Amino acid sequence: MQKQRYTIDPISPFSEADLTSLFEAFAETPWALLLDSAGDITGDNRFDIMLVDPQTTLVTEGLETRIWTASDGHTTISSDDPLILAERIHADFAQQYELPSTELARRLPFIAGVAGAFGYDLGRRFEYLPSRFSNEYQCPDMAVGLYTRSLILDKHCNTLYDCRPETALPFSQWCRAFSPKNVQAPFQLTEPWQANLNKQEYTRGIDAIHAYLNAGDCYQVNFAQRFSAGYTGSEWQAYLNLRHANKAPFSAYARLPQATLLSISPERFLAVSDGKVQTKPIKGTRPRSDDPEEDSRQANALLTSIKDRAENLMIVDLLRNDISKHCQPHSVRVPAPFALESYAAVHHMVTTVEGELAQDASPFQLLRDAFPGGSITGAPKIRAMQIIDELEANGRNIYCGSIGYVGLKNDMDTSICIRTLLCENHRVYCWAGGGIVLDSTAEDEFQESLDKVNKIIPILHD
Fold first, then answer.
1. Active-site option among 155, 247, 283, 381
2. Where does 4-461 sit in CATH, by number?
3. Which of 235, 267, 311, 445 is catalytic?
4. Is residue 267 annotated as a catalytic residue, yes or no?
5. 283 a catalytic residue
6. Which of these, 101, 9, 36, 23, lies nearest to 409 by C-alpha position?
7. N or C: which end of the chain has fewer CB within 10 A?
């Protein structure tokens, strides 16, 4: 069978604001997805990817995955491993198409392929992790689409690239042919934010984790609280306010049939490019300050903190092990330990871990066997997740899951869904947590969780 070729058409000049305006016309359309590298142009902030109108969708809830195809409108149900199903559909797609052999095609990420959201609870399909939470949210455990067309903005050269099969409509015709919905009224909360734990309950959770740590069950457990409120109006408008205030490199807006996800995450989970694997766990946080001297003091305190370095190192060791399952032997290394990354609300300690993908491995396998990310579970991972299930007051859903893609070039980029909101049934949910170790104090950890949402909750409250 002869493969169909892809066309990559440059549309220049085209700014970040132009892409945001273009996407706004589709923001109420189910399966519209914006992978948004908000903020200053750096290595992780160069490309924005706009996706709409997937040709196949996969929605996993519990033990079932519903697979819908646009060509015939048919839906099938499978109990197979969700990521194996996604990999099969991606592989069938890759057999049908080929990219031009140009430097541009090699440089751009994704082009086409599978993209979407992988909730924290998807991990229950890969490990035995019974949960006391069920049917708590409408948002599914996994919601991904096979997107055959993408619009990719390269912010280095202010050029939008229309990536499509050569038989597809050109950009201008495609825009006219699609029927976008109108954006709703401005976003507005209808009640104050409510936490699912008060300070006393939070302290009891920390005490219970300390008991497990002393007993030798774990050496770090991530513990989170959830905030929620009622709302009306446009989730897209809420996202615009959040992205402006936070400028996080792994921001994303995902309009699913059941829910809308607003993510302003600063954390990369797993990336694969030209066979090179990278993960960048965040462990260690200090609040930002408007006073430059105090802000610098907070950053230096983080970088010199023995506790935060130890906490970071625990997770780095976990992730080195996780990615080594599908990396070439002896290729995993840590080129940048304990680096400072500063965002609008907080300073973070970030370590870069790299490896070379094994020749017989795929990005889907790498994602599956490292999921969910160790930076938001604790270590050892499975026991930490069991303790999380026992002690947290509500399920996590998309929080601490991932949003991202696996592209036609076998490339991948995924986030850790911290600083991420779930909007459904006119309620918005937001979580914040941190890694608990033996020398963690409930007072400090409680305050750190509030620091992490001080550019989210106040922004939406105003």
1. 283
2. 3.60.120.10
3. 267
4. yes
5. yes
6. 101
7. N
